[in-house]
Amino acid sequence: MTVQGLTTIKSSHGPNETMARLESAVKAKGLTVFARIDHAGGASAAGLSLRPTEVLIFGNAKGGTPLMQAVQTVGIDLPLKALVWQDASGETWLSWNDPAWLAARHGLSGVEAVVGKLAALLEELAKTATAA
After folding, report:
1. Domains along the sequence of the chain with CATH
2. Which of 23, 59, 108, 117 has the fewest Cβ atoms within 10 angstroms?
3. DSSP secondary structure code for residue 31 in this structure
4. How many angstroms separate the CA atoms of 111 and 96, rounded?
C-alpha cells in the first residue's frame, strides 16, 4: 500500500496491543496524548462494521510551534497523528504522516532540523509500538 506522504509499517502485534504500546511510548517520551479516536467503535455505534481502526493524536508545543511559526497552515496537520488499523487478512499496521511531506505540503523552509527530529521521533515510537 502506497499513499503519498504516509509511512506505513506492519506490526508484530494485534491492533489493541499495538495502540497500547504506541500510547505508552508517546507518554514515556513526555508527549501529550490529546485524543484517541476509535473509528471502529463509532461505526459499530452507527450499526456499521469496520475492522479495528484507531487514531492517536499527540504532540507538544516545542515540536509543533516552530512549524506553525513558519507557516500557520501546518496547524491543520498538527498535532501529530498515528493510525493503527487491521487489514482484511487480519494483519495490523501503523501509519503516520511523514513530517517532510507535511513541510513540503505547506511550503515550509528553514525548519529542516525540526522536521528531522519529528521524523526520528515518529520512527522510534513506531518501532516501539510494532516490534516483536
Report:
1. 7-130 (3.30.310.70)
2. 117
3. P
4. 19
Q: Are strands 6-10 and 80-86 parallel, antiparallel or unpaired?
A: unpaired
Q: Tens of pLDDT along 49-80?
A: 999 999 999 999 998 999 999 999 999 999 99
Q: What is the pLDDT of residues 85-122, one digit of tens each?
A: 999 999 999 999 999 999 999 999 999 999 999 999 99
Alpha-carbon span 42 to 16, nearest angstrom:
16
Coil/strand/helix, residue 36: strand
Calpha distance 78→62 (Å, rounded)? 12
What is the average per-residue pLDDT within 30-48? 98
Cell 503516520, residue located: 96
Q: For residues 17 and 25, give the distance between their C-alpha atoms in angstroms, rounded to a whole number.
A: 12
pLDDT grade for 2, boundaries at 50, 70 and 90: confident
Q: How many CB atoms lie within 10 A of CB 95?
A: 17
Rounded to whole angstroms, the Cα distance separating 15 from 2 reads 20
Run of H or E including 68: helix 61-70
